[in-house]
Amino acid sequence: MAQSTVNGRESKYVYWSRIGRKACQYALVLFIALTINFSLPRLAPGDPLSYLFGTEVNSLSEEQRDQVNSELGLDRSILSQYADFLAGAFTLELGSSTKFGKPVTEVLADSLPWSLLIIGPALLLSPFAGILFGAYAAWHRAKRRDIVLLVLMLTMEAMPVFWAGMLLIAIFSVQLGWLPSYGAVPLIHPGNTLDYGLEVLRRMVLPVITITFSSIGTYFLMTRFSMLDTLGQDYMTMAEAKGVRPRRLLYGHALRNALLPVYTHFTMSLGILLGGAVIVETVFSYPGIGRLLYESVIARDYPMMQGVFLMITVGVIIANLLADLTYPLVDPRVRTRRALEAAR
User: Fold this and answer.
1) For residue 9, pLDDT beyond 70
2) From the CB of residue 31, how many other CB atoms can be counted at a distance below 10 Å?
3) What was the pLDDT predicted at 173?
4) Mean pLDDT within 11-29
5) DSSP tag of 170
6) Cβ–Cβ contacts within 10 Å for residue 37, how many?
7) Could you tell me which residues are beta bridge partners of residue 103?
8) 256 and 189 in one domain?
9) Which SUPFAM superfamilies is this protein grouped with (predicted)?
10) Do 242 and 140 fall within a single domain?
11) Lowest-confidence region among 50-64, 114-128, 138-152, 180-194
12) Residue 201 belongs to domain with CATH number
């Protein structure tokens, strides 16, 4: 009885020590990321004055420059600005945008739903199609179907995102006239809520297809490579020798084990895609976070850039945390290893 109590205390200690190490790692990553987020806008060439006044910036007097810098909060030392940025990052007081003239949090709240509207479907479509075609190609390895799919996916993987978007615009908007090529909402409200919703959906199609095309190749290649490795394992040969049906052999045995690295990539992409849609949203003039970041960089809008970078950073960290928490549910070997560590 006493021994089991001691073992229980040791297992709790191992559990909480692992949680503590993870918390320290994420805190360090967050601090480094915040420091980089603060530094990057200021290391880039140009400044807000050049955007606000254009060619007339050289005609400003020293007093006028100091007045504008004071209004923008740029007259203080870098350390003072850095301290205010860190405090604002934790209190969500990120200042006001010099380009939009509104609080950064308000602009982010307006843009985030539009990004999620196109990233959400793409996050579902690209893994589903990539995994399905990757498993099919691996099952028919070295055959014509496998080679055709491999060449097609490699071509899609190598295709620049902006070029794919412009190609889709040329075909479906210019030539066929089926879909709009820019914006998220119609210029003139149709007057009917249903028609308005349909117009929003029509403007989603090309950005979603572009994001899906740009990421489906990675899922295909990862699934195919992992499946080929899994199909060569001894337990697969044993299952085949026992007469397991091909469909169950493919989906119940091979694909289930081959999905582990694909799942890790999926969780990592949850945060990265939020900022990775910059090119797509710029090509289609879509009013999301990516387009907002592009406009902020052009305007040298320091508060806005810092806010977008902060959102992307937090998204990536949350995705990593989600992967750490859910991976033991996907891979039983992780649960077994942790149980053995706790039992020592």
Assistant:
1) no
2) 11
3) 87
4) 73
5) I
6) 20
7) 96
8) yes
9) MetI-like
10) yes
11) 50-64
12) 1.10.3720.10
